[in-house]
Amino acid sequence: MHAEQNGRSADRLSVVYTVHVIEGGEQGFLKAYDQIRNSVASVPGHIIDRLGEPVDDSRQWVITSEWETPDHFFAWQQSEDHRALLAPLRAWVDQTQSLRYRVIQETVGVKA
């Protein structure tokens, strides 16, 4: 069954990837992320990537992405290209966590 919610396909997959950047590693991390984001933009099924910088001194960065379907994401994640692309990023982080989910409800703010 294919459902639409506020114009968004319920089949889409959202991914949240949190990384703890090592002390002093921000510039290396940003350079590695730039290489990843430019490459992933051409992967079939990729919709958008966002990078969130911490507003405190936690060094906990957040990368979010959205994919047309879970199959698109998992095909990319299991590829050799994915592993090779992420290798330089791993030099700048000491902890990671990945969450994957389907958006089932979305509330959009009212514009004044």
In short:
The protein is an alpha+beta fold and 112 residues long.
What profile does the largest beta sheet have? Answer: 4 strands, antiparallel
Strand order of the largest sheet: 4-5-3-6
Tell how many strands the DSSP assignment holds.
6
**Integer tally of domains:** 1
SSE class: alpha+beta
Silhouette: globular
CATH architecture: 2-Layer Sandwich
Number of helices: 3
Radius of gyration: 15 Å
The average pLDDT value, as a whole number, equals 89
Order of helices and strands: EEEHEEHHE
In the CATH scheme, what's the topology name? Answer: Alpha-Beta Plaits
Helix content, binned percent: 25-40%
In whole angstroms, the N-to-C terminal distance is 36 Å
Q: Bin the strand percentage.
A: 25-35%
Please identify the top-level CATH class.
Answer: Alpha Beta
Uncertain residue ranges: 1-7
